[in-house]
Amino acid sequence: MKRILTCAILIASTFAAYSQSLGYNDLGILFSKDDNYGTARFEAMSGAFGALGGDISSFSINPAGSAVANKSTFAATLGNRNTEYTAMYYGNTSVNENDFFNITQAGGILSFDSASSSDWSRFALTFNYRLKSDFDSFFSVQGNSGFLFYPEHLQDQSATPTQFDRSLNQSISRETFGESSVLSIGFSSVYQKKLFVGGALKFHNIEFNQRSYFNEINDDIDENILDVVDRENIFYEGSGFSLSLGFIYKLNQNIRLGLAYETPTWYQEVFEDYSYSFDMAPVNNLNIPKYNEGIDHELFVYKFKSHSRVTASGAYVFGKQGLISIDYTYKDYKSIRFNSPDFEKENQSFLNDYRNVHSLNVGTEWRFDKMSIRGGYHYEKNPNLISELGGNTNKDNLRGFSLGLGYKFGSTSFDLAYQNSESINYNSLYNLGDIPITNNTSRISGTITFSL
User: Fold this and answer.
1) What are phi and psi of 80, to 5 degrees?
2) What is the Cα–Cα distance from 128 to 125, expressed in whole angstroms?
3) Minimal CA–CA distance to 356: which of 320, 301, 308, 421?
4) pTM for this one?
5) Residue of 196, 323, 379, 449 with fewest CB within 10 Å of its CB?
6) C-alpha pair distances (Å), 4 with each of 19, 32, 174, 250, 328
């Protein structure tokens, strides 16, 4: 039995089965999210590396890219992310900020030339840890919507319960933290110095915690106050795996084409630990005592399958001077599934209320002796189709740009990247999408790379 059913049973004798935490459809999208973390070079070019290869993080887009590297390479990246959340609530605006700092990538490519005169002239073994998404966020809003959930006190034993049907104020906050990451191991090779092929096995991990707070204050015609507080704390943990295959073909010295496919990620067990408390303060003027109820650490286990993705890529290389690269990615969000009969409604919603999406990543790099200058642009449609939540309006699509520098010191290089992106999330309380939140995110990353 999933968490929403438990909540409904708990308070069915009172009001609606209200929950201010993220729903399972929201979680399905969140757990499938990939923010394209990688090396600073990769991020500076907005991750457009599907037809280029050579960089350790290109392996996350197209596993054939590792065989492009002529030398064994090791890299580690530190990243900082700052997000400003601007939340609107029935005419009121609040602004909150959140910072995240961590190791976002570490890995290496072991490149070997073939000992024989075979057409397969080089092969590479790759291992890489990469942060997929960090879930640290916070927003808080308050105001008066004019709506209410709780018109009566649950301890009011009178024949005609007092109606606290005048809405005075609501306060809502939600804090999330955790991350999803992936450890990838792969093999790639090059045939006749033109065709690069590769495959990878990826091990995914999710840790996600959300804490929600909701306070509703209403009064009656005599101005007696009903003060209600609702708290939820939910922790999720899961691990899964996926496979990826890809190739890169050098059409000539300038043009490169790439194609890659990654299977869905299969999470065999997702653990959910759910806690909940509900409190109504006493109304002393009416001799109504306080009321409280709750759940303490109820556990749920289920299986989950994310979307798959296909990436088609092209690049034009201007000799040693520079390059332009484009990646187009297709993600089938409608195929996301929770594997349990309890999730029939959510699985049907993925089919009816969500769409498969397209994303575009464009990057460029220009070299000046030992220095490189980079830039990029990225755009991705939101899979949501519900118009009240921004679907089909293009308001909730993700778009942004990136910039970066690199400098080479012999066999060592240092790279910096800056990314900025903006999107809108539509959260719901009394009505669909009544808490729109604009997310303005800036990321700075630095990578040190050693070549052997």
Assistant:
1) -125, 135
2) 10
3) 308
4) 0.91
5) 379
6) 8, 21, 18, 52, 37
